[in-house]
Amino acid sequence: MPYRVIVVDAYDSFVHILVSYFEQLGCKVTVLRKDDPGLLALIDPLYSDIIVLGPGPGPGHPSQSGYDIILNKNSGRLPVLGVCLGHQAIGLYYGCIIEYAKNLMHGKTSLIKHDGQGCYVSLNSRTLKVMRYHSIIVANKDIPSHMAVTSYSIDDNYIMGLRHQHLPIESVQFHPESIATECGLDLIKNFITTYTFNKKGCKYEELH
Prior knowledge:
Layout: E1 4-9, H1 15-24, E2 28-33, E3 50-53, H2 67-74, E4 80-83, H3 85-93, E5 98-114, E6 127-138, E7 147-153, E8 159-164, E9 169-172, H4 184-195
Parallel strand pairs: 1-2, 1-3, 3-4, 4-9
Antiparallel strand pairs: 5-6, 5-7, 7-8, 8-9
């Protein structure tokens, strides 16, 4: 049975590319806008296996994205992947500081260094070239103990990835679906294989 993926669309112009990556990996994908009245009912292991908090132009600040309502409803039951806006919203929800970046990165690439775990597991190199579109970042200070920094940009030392230490939640600031991001499909595949614990009949902690 294919994994059932809910992609939450924050009115992003390229969400269909992210969707196509999951479909290439054999997933059954449902795309719902972040304000769809039927969305919260599907945030349930009975109906879904993975939640993707997608990118988007944003309301101006991730606190206004509505993603906190989704994370609250989920309560760690389903694996969550956050991309760009989703990354920022996850960081904010779990106690990180959000701030405006000094370097605006709209359509620019950077090399990142990662920890080789989670969505980065099994990659051949600890560095990747990724595409960035953002002006807001998760600040690299006062990171809560339950959150781990998984990657950072080499050129400006901004956080490019987070992982919850106890829940199946991971996020990336960059765009894995961009053609300019190296190993983008592998990143998605690694997330799926790392966090789809509910199909294996065991808790997330038992996989690590």
